[in-house]
Every structure is written in structure tokens, then in C-alpha cells.
Amino acid sequence: MIDAHAEEARPAHAALLDAHVHIWDLSRRTLPWLPPGHPLRRTFTLSELPAEPFDGVVLVQADADPAEVGDLLEVARRHAAVVGVVGWFDLLDFPDQVPDDPRLVGVRSPPVDQADPAAMTDPAHVQGVRAATDAGLAIDLLLRPSALIGAARLANAVPEARLVLDHLGNPTTADDEWRTGMQALAECPSVFVKLSGTAHLATDDLRALVDVALELFGSERLLFGSDWPVCTLASTRAEVIRRTTALLPPATHNDVFRGTAQRIYRPRETAPCPKALDTPGARF
Asked: Where are the alpha helices (DSSP H) in 59-202?
């Protein structure tokens, strides 16, 4: 049953596409970033996604294991609500073949040091980004503010790549380092920013961050993701949707809550995939 606040969470005049949702099965994944006793160290399935209104989700990698891609694609085949999968492939050693499945729309391969700007333009990383782009995939970037300037250099090195900065670049406040990095990224038209991973932020801090992102990128380069179930450490998914909606002008909702994600992730449905390999997946 949808709770009393669910309809209030839906953006005005927009069908909600949640572009950042995680699921995992601990019988198949090790997830070393979740230590024993952590409240998220259990299996999360798509059926547990709360019933707040949504019209589609993008599943995003949680494990540095290419086998997870097959698992997520299998879920996507069985659930029409999953419009895309952003899976893990090693961008430092990108495979010669990727699954020939239109639901595979992106790759996320966080660097070991997410704060190091030089990691973005390591020659092997640049080569991997080019290979993933040639395969029709968008690139999600999970970085810290100090690395954003490196991401801008990457965008200039591979201008045809569709780069998606997750979690606004993981700032805590709109400080000078973050603003400088975001300004550099905004000058690269192929870079988009995901309003995700924000549940832990105070509303005033989040407002300042969203205002800067909207000013620099415009709504056509911003997209929303709840970061469920990670968001539940600080809030509910409904509250994340409600709070983000309240901080954005209604005229931006169609872009942020659906249109931008479609433009970034959906083109692969009709794009050729020159490097194809069937990958078995698990049912969960």
C-alpha cells in the first residue's frame, strides 16, 4: 500500500525515473565495503523497493565483479520497471566483449582512490573510457570533490563520452574546491550530474549544492537518483524524493526526474553493440 505521503513525493508533471537504485544478493556478492554488522549487510531485492510512485529505475553496480552485471541484467529481463543497468567492468582493462543486451546502458568502475584527480587521466583509464563509449555505454563516475578537476580533463580527452557524476561529486558543503571542480565540469557538454546520495545532508547544505548545480548545468544536464537502499541509513526513499522535489523549480522536474536520464541511458536501446557476449545471470 502506498503511504499517505507517496503522492506528495511525485514531482509535478513528471513520471519518475529513479536513475540510481542498488540491489544485491549476499549469497552471490561479498561487498567488502559493507563490514560485518553493518545495517545494510543483507540481501536487498527489487521487490523490496518501497511503493512510492515511480515509473522506472536504473540499477547501478554495487560490487566490483563483472558477474554482477549478469545478475542485474537477469533482474531487468524479468521486471519491466528496470529500464537500464549500469554495471561494473574494469575500465583499466576493459573487456573485448560486453553483453549484447539493450538493458546494459552504462558502466561504473570507481578508481581505487576516488580523491585522486590523476586517476581520471591515467592512460589505461582513458583507453577504457574510450572502449566503453565505443560499446555504446555511458560512464558513471563515483568521485570525491578533489578529483572533479581530473574528471573535467577526462571529459576533454574523450569528448564523445557521456559522463555521469554520481552523488553530485560527494560534497558535504558547497565549498571552493567543489565549486571549482563543478565549474570545470560544466564547461564540458558531455558531463551530467546525478542528484543522488544526498539523504545524509542537511537541507540547507543540500539546497546550496542543488542551486549551484542547477545554475552551472541547467536542468537538461541534471538527473535524479534515490540511492536506495543506501539512503535508508539517513532517510526514507519517499523523503529523498520529496525533499529533492521541493528544492527544484517545477519547470525543471520533467528533465531532472525523467528526461535527462532517458537521454543519457536510453539511446543504447537502438544503438549497435559491436562487442557482444551472452552472460548468464542469477534469478533473485
From this structure: 67-78, 123-134, 148-157, 176-186
Task: Profile the chain (284 residues) by mean pLDDT over runs of 10 residues.
Answer: 46 80 96 96 94 83 96 95 96 96 96 97 98 97 98 98 98 97 98 98 97 98 98 96 96 96 71 35 36
CA distances from 32 to 36, 62, 72, 231, 237 (A): 9, 10, 19, 18, 24
Among the listed residues 1, 19, 13, the one whose alpha carbon sits nearest the alpha carbon of residue 240: 19
Q: What is the residue type of 64?
A: A
Angle CA 253–256–262, to nearest 5: 120
Q: How far apart are the first and last CA of the chain?
A: 23
Do 213 and 193 touch, CB atoms closer than 8 A? yes
Amino acid at 99: P
The three grid cell numbers given for residue 237, joined into one nine-digit string: 526513499
Distance CA 230, CA 233 (A): 6
The count of residues in the chain is 284
Whole-model pTM: value is 0.90
